[in-house]
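BUG-160 | component: ligand-complex export | severity: low

The export step for fe (iii) ion jobs runs without errors, but we want the raw record kept on the ticket for reference. Input record follows.
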Amino acid sequence: MKKLFIGLVILLVGCKGNSQEKPISEETVYSVQKTDTQWRKELSDLQYFVLRKAGTEPAGSSELLDNKKKGVYVCAACGTELFISEHKYDSGSGWPSFDREIKGNVGFDVDYKIGYKRTEEHCAVCGGHLGHVFNDGPRESTGQRHCINGAALKFIPSEK
Ligand code: FE
């Protein structure tokens, strides 16, 4: 019985020694951090659903979809500049689309929410979900299609 016990201990310790448990990804610390209650207060229901719950607005619903004015698109939650009008194009998807982001202000992640791998994108400052990036964008420029929820954005027109 004693031998069996020692054997078990060796087996357990051995297993533990072999398994390398590392966290999958380190938790990102965003410079703008608010409690869920604060976000709920500050954002509209749709903004909260998209930005904080990684939801998707109905296709064709955003008033920014056909916006062709010159200006900058900022995060609706924290005001960080995310996209500029020069990089906006009509993808026909029903969501505001850009061929590139403002580098450094957008963070990327991987999600499998609808069963296959997609590149998720979010505001690098507050972590608010914006949309996804696909590789079927305009070939003459970057080939990227940043498919963005209009509810996650605010448009600031350029001054004339
Ligand atoms: Fe933000």
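Assignee comment: Attached the raw record above. The beta strands are 71-75, 81-84, 88-89, 97-98, 106-111, 118-123, 129-134, 145-148, 153-157.
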